[in-house]
Amino acid sequence: MTFVESIQTCFRKYATFAGRAARPEYWWFVLFLVLTQVVAEMTSPTLSAVFVIATLIPAIAAATRRLHDVDRSGWWQLIGFIPLIGWIVLIYWMCQPGKEPNRFGPAPNSPSQIQDFSQV
């Protein structure tokens, strides 16, 4: 999955908390969020706040789908509220390869999940 495909997928699944997200989908989207947030903050604090509010739900949804890929509930994101240790654990889980078989559905890039965009 490329950088642009990742961003498109995450915004297409704006509030979709079901399913799974592969590592490239999640990490490319995180890179987009960080870079855009830095630029927005340098431009205007108001623009930065609007961007954070607009991307909060897709960021949580993408993280939930990523945790589903490693066979964990999306509620595990709340562990991030534990200072330092929580973030370390979350980053470790987000970097793990997806587990198969999985109770959250087929692998993100399995043949049943790949869409043919030439038909759209």
TrEMBL record:
Pfam short name (any one): DUF805
Transmembrane segment boundaries: 21-40, 46-63, 75-94
UniProt keywords, alphabetically: Membrane, Transmembrane, Transmembrane helix
Highest taxon in the source lineage: Bacteria
Keyword Zinc among record annotations: no
Name the record gives this protein: DUF805 domain-containing protein
Protein source organism: Hydrogenophaga atypica
